[in-house]
Amino acid sequence: MSIDSTGRVVLVTGGNRGIGRAIAERFVQEGYRVAVTARSGEGPEGTLTVRADVTDSAAIDAAFTEVERQLGPVEVVVANAGITKDTLLLRMSEDDFDSVVATNLGGSFRVVKRASKGMLKARFGRVILISSVVGLYGSAGQVNYASSKSALVGFARSLTRELGARNITANVVAPGFIETDMTAELDESTQAEYRKAIPAGRYGSAAEVAAAVTWLASDDSAYISGAVIPVDGGLGMGH
After folding, report:
1. Element containing residue 230 per DSSP (H, E)
2. Sheet holding 228-231, edge to edge
3. Alpha-carbon Rg for the chain in angstroms
4. With contact defined as beta carbons under 8 Å apart, do 231 and 209 qualify?
5. Pairing state of beta strands 168-175 and 228-231?
6. How far is 74 from 11, CA to CA, in rounded Å?
7. Distance between CA atoms of 87 and 142, rounded to whole angstroms?
8. 9 with 75: CB under 8 angstroms?
9. Angle between helices 143-163 and 107-122 (to 10 degrees)
10. Does this model's pTM top 0.85?
């Protein structure tokens, strides 16, 4: 494995479990200085954990200030924190819709806005937004979630046009069905049904998502911006 010797500072939101935790672990392995935000729990070994709720801009500012004090300016930001409140449209309350959008899309906005100040000063930055295959593929019962995740594509592309000349890239990673606590709770027949729809015939691993994220943060991807990188075993077929 190639070690990134730059020791760049990375902040991963929601880095205490699941895909976010795997991303943080991979950055640690590659020699980055890594901080994670978490509402509860701790990030993996070798990371700095700061408390923050991504719906609260004052909490985000305080978290960044703490990371800057302990590690230095944030050069790579991974907006991963997200929630679901799945239900069919006619049963979906305004709060079901608004709270998911406020966390998944609004949270990304608050985090990236705060990170961009330091990136503009440094004339370097990597913004990586964690979306979902559902964002462009669609999913019954997930109007709120799919809307929040597809919006990240427009976000990254607009940011690319604003900040691209400053050596700042903004890209989207769209995971498909990944082996996490959430998918483990599905019964075997449901899991088999989902697997049938995936050309690769299996769920992905959080480590496979992390590999795509760390590549987008590296110098190897400096000329890639506004892209959507699917990690979905072919499920979305380029959506």
Report:
1. strand 228-231
2. 47-51, 33-38, 9-13, 76-79, 125-130, 168-175, 228-231
3. 17
4. yes
5. parallel
6. 7
7. 7
8. yes
9. 20
10. yes
Q: For residue 34, what are its two tokens?
A: 């890594």
- Domains of the chain, start order: 9-229 (3.40.50.720)
28 Rama class: left (phi>0) / alpha (psi -120 to 50) / beta: alpha
SS3 of 147-216 = HHHHHHHHHHHHHHHHHHHHCEEEEEEEECCECCHHHHCCCHHHHHHHHHHCCCCCCECHHHHHHHHHHH
> Cα dihedral angle (203, 207, 209, 214), rounded to 10 degrees?
-170
Q: Is 194 a catalytic residue?
A: no
Alpha carbon distance 67, 117 (integer Å) = 14
CB atoms inside a 10 Å sphere around CB 91:
8
- Options 32, 137, 145, 203, the catalytic residue: 145
Q: Residue 37 and residue 59: Cα distance in Å, rounded?
A: 10
Contact 67, 11 (CB under 8 A): yes
User: Contact, 210 vs 19, CB < 8 A?
Assistant: yes
Spatial contact of 111 and 60, defined as CB atoms under 8 Å apart: yes
* Ranges assigned E (strand) in 7-146: 9-13, 33-38, 47-51, 76-79, 125-130
- pLDDT tens-place string over residues 1-51: 344 446 999 999 999 999 999 999 999 999 999 999 999 999 999 999 999
Q: In which band, very low, low, confident or very high, does the pLDDT at 188 lie, cut at 50, 70 and 90? A: confident
Taking the C-alpha atoms of residue 96 and residue 93, their distance in angstroms, rounded to an integer, is: 5
